[in-house]
Design brief:
By secondary structure, the protein is α+β, with helices and mostly antiparallel strands. The chain has one helix at about 1-15; strands at about 20-30, 35, 40-45, 55, 60, 70-80, 90-105. The protein is globular, with a radius of gyration of 19 Å. About 10% of the residues are buried.
Length: about 110
């Protein structure tokens, strides 16, 4: 009986630790754009589909190092954030892989 209870508690612990997340593909423009968050800053320009219009991206992508002049296609894991501060995104973005990195000559 003690082993059964311990097994049940272990399962509950691991189920509670699993967070909900989605993966998605992002297209990243080769140059950042001026934008205003809490203060003026530079934002990535991102789209989710090849034919979409570029959108300003105010968040960070953990594990991704943007290099000006390179266009990227990346896969990210999007995790819902708990207790979100007023000036922060409700989603945490983590790099899964760089699918493509292409230098753009202007």
């Amino acid at each position: 009986m003690k082993t059964l209870i311990l097994s049940f508690l272990t399962i509950l612990f691991f189920v509670g630790c699993v967070s909900s997340y989605n993966t998605s593909t992002l297209y990243i423009a080769p140059y950042k754009a001026n934008c205003v968050g809490v203060a003026p800053m530079k934002c990535l320009k991102v789209k989710k589909q090849k034919d979409d219009k570029w959108q300003l991206f105010y968040s960070n992508i953990n594990g991704f190092k943007f290099e000006e002049g390179n266009q990227y296609i990346i896969k990210v894991k999007e995790e819902k954030r708990e207790n979100v501060p007023a000036d922060a995104s409700s989603i945490i973005y983590n790099l899964v892989e760089i699918i493509e990195k292409k230098t753009i000559n202007n």
